[in-house]
């Protein structure tokens, strides 16, 4: 068993689907810090069930889902799948490959899958138990696992050793047993509490039951007296009510006549009020119009005053502008005179500066030419000196080259002879190797042909085996699902049978009658004798209502006996339906006049024995079943509410128009019980038949699997032999081919070398002649340069003196130029300032003249506006006088209508007094009626509240022979009072309590036996755990001593159980003695020594109990280079039995690896994996 593949999608920094394939041996996962390499080990821990997000370097579940970048959107879910090779069937599951998958969404949903089927985390834990694989095992070793071993917390360290010693599964079973024991004890405590409570209640209940039975007997006698008394009182009230109702009818007629006359007068008042409203509306409109005219007149007067004020302001502004204009003209004259004076001064300064500037320019031009000549002269001297140095160096280099070329010619001739001899020897060896290679290649081809045939047959067999396994698994799933369904159906069937047996859902009286087999003529409850389809059950139950509880009898005599039985035992009331009396009342469908379609008459939708037809049609024969309430309302309206209508949802439209509906109470399935029992029995039988067939097929498939596996084993052995032979032959071929290629390459290299030597010889001879000629030319140039240097040095000295004198003269002239330029700039600035002021003054003069002209025009316009406003006001005053006259006329008409209304109101008050007198008489009659009705209702209410009887039902108990004697009443009541508090329910309660007492007594005994059995199991588990832990711990300790010496290169290490009497809970002490040091406690070691000690323990555990694969996440980070080398060597040894995946950045670990995966981040926050097979890489390196 080993880790085969890891798939990540959306997990942390792996947004796209990333597949990492693992081979046996050591696989290193490398990459820079922050590239996401540790996310791979996090993914393995997460898929194996890690629930702590903090241990995965996050805060919440969302943190393990790719969060997105600037260029890539965040993922909504993440998924990690881990595939394990189970071909050795170490895992207890019938699959050669096991894939564990975990998926999580941002909304918090998550799930585990085993071979793509949903499962619980518990299922995965149980599958991997005792394999070392899991979040708490030692298959994933990160720095945190090292810290657990180094931790001072005994529980953390203990967890690692429990898993290593193989007692985790026992501890898990023990915890489960202890949990069951705790639950069982809690159940026992609860049952004992209930048992004691019931035991204390049973004796008092017996006494209460006896008193209750006497009470019921007295209560029945009292009932007969009180019911007959109520009937006689109600009869008296009915007679009085009849007489008073006649008087009320006469009074109502007289009141109606008065009301007609009053309505007529009210109409006349209403018409007069309408006319007044019209006049008031007209008056209101006139008032509004008059007010609006007045407002306009006032506005005109205000406008005229405003215009006159604006005219006066404009005249004042004209005078002010004229005064300001004179001031501006005077200032303009003064500024122009000053400007002329400054312009003359600027002209004189400008001429002086121009003369000085020309003088400086002439001198600088002469001096610049001299400076240029001097620089050229200096440069020529420097160039000549550099040339002499260059000539000397060249002459030296050429002399050295001559010496080397001479020696090279001798070497070339010697090497050419050696090469010719070597080429002849290699050609002889090459021909021999080619002949051997051809023979081997023919043999490999023959083996491959045979291997292909065997592989084809093997693949067919494997496919056939997988098909058988799939069929077997599918049959197991079907059987499992069928068993679950059968259990569910059986449970429901038993519930419905029990309900049917105990008549659940029926009232107490109905149950007692149905239960009593001594009563003759009882046919059953109405709800028991009919059945219907499931879709009509709600409608039929609603249509029957309380009728469901009615009991059918053969005749009235049987009903009478049943009623007597109920009375005698005080068991409540029941309605009986004698078959010899009740007749059919079925609707004639031809009389139904409705366009709205209906389903059927209710009696046609139920099935029953023919003998009950009259009763069924009497109760359901006038009820129509319809699909929904909307169609029900249409139907009821079209048939004038003559029929009872019921919808499929159970809503009822009663005759007369009332509706009943809403939510239905939880049903006891009285009507559907028999149908459900039949359905469940049929389903259970079908499942049994199907499971028998499945088991037969499963046996056939198991036999086929066994035969196919035997064939596969045979072919695999043959193929392995052929593959080994091919590998052996290919190895030889590769070796021979490598030798042939090597010989060919050697010949080519030698031939190239010989050709190069020949060319080099010709080149060297020509080069010697060329160098000798170059040396002569360089010596001639050197002499010419020395002569030129002497001549130029004398000329340079003369030019330097003239240049310095002219430079001083230029500096003096430039100082004078700067002073005069500053004076000129000051004059120029003053001229510009005065020009600006002149421009501003001119602008202000123009603005003043424009203002004066504008104001004069404005005065003329305002005078015209004033004249227009005065004319308009005169016209409005005339219109105002006209409208005031119309207002007076309307007011007079309004007053006349008000006088008419007052006359009518006086007449109405007279009618009101007469009507009031009649109403008072009516009120007295109604009060009397209400009082009598209230008295009657009081008697009927007391009948219902005291005895659950309507007046009609009470008449059935009427007995005129009974004497209503007050003394008898008092005697019965005194005896009832003497009984004190009565608990009627104690009769039923005593019976139920006795049954519960017996039941809980039995439960108590069962639980006590269970506790003993569980305690025995826990004791056995502890013994097994101690034995196994001691054996395995001894082995781990021995391994630790060995591994410690290997990894430290010497020294001693030891593990000790501190409490030998409590080895299952004891802390484990780690002591170590590094080479050259004393034995120390773990806490006294250095950081690197601690880490290497912890690694030694983990490797000792793996030696004692190898895990199929182990992930190491940078556990060697604290080690130095020497320890890393020993760590890598030992890891290589362990990899023969355990597959290792090492997340690392240390070179020593990488060198020990067989395969390397590099993790990079080409894009920010997105990891990418690149793989390299180091075996193939080494082969390629050897060939090159």
UniProtKB/TrEMBL annotation:
Q: Which UniProt keywords apply?
A: ATP-binding, Coiled coil, Cytoplasm, DNA-binding, Nucleotide-binding
Cellular compartments per GO CC: chromosome; cytoplasm
Q: Does the keyword Zinc apply?
A: no
Task: Give the record's GO biological process terms.
Answer: chromosome condensation; chromosome segregation; DNA replication; sister chromatid cohesion
Which parts of the sequence bind ATP? 32-39
- Domain SMC hinge as annotated: residue spans: 520-636
Where located?
Cytoplasm
Q: Which Pfam families match?
A: SMC_hinge, SMC_N
Kindly list the GO molecular function terms attached to this UniProt entry. Answer: ATP binding; ATP hydrolysis activity; DNA binding
Q: Return the SUPFAM superfamilies for the record.
A: P-loop containing nucleoside triphosphate hydrolases, Smc hinge domain
Which InterPro entries does this entry report, sorted A to Z?
P-loop_NTPase, RecF/RecN/SMC_N, SMC, SMC_hinge, SMC_hinge_sf, SMC_prok
SMART domains registered for this protein in UniProt: SMC_hinge
- Coiled-coil stretches: 167-201, 227-296, 325-401, 430-478, 677-798, 824-921, 990-1024
Free-text comment about domains? Contains large globular domains required for ATP hydrolysis at each terminus and a third globular domain forming a flexible hinge near the middle of the molecule. These domains are separated by coiled-coil structures.
Q: Which NCBIfam families match?
A: SMC_prok_B
Sum up the protein's function in the record's words.
Required for chromosome condensation and partitioning.
Question: What's this protein's family per the entry?
Answer: Belongs to the SMC family.
HAMAP family (UniProt xref) = Smc_prok (MF_01894)
Tell me, how does this one assemble?
Homodimer.
Q: Which PANTHER family match?
A: STRUCTURAL MAINTENANCE OF CHROMOSOMES PROTEIN 3
The protein in question is named Chromosome partition protein Smc
Q: Which organism is it from?
A: Intestinibacter bartlettii
Gene of this entry: smc_1
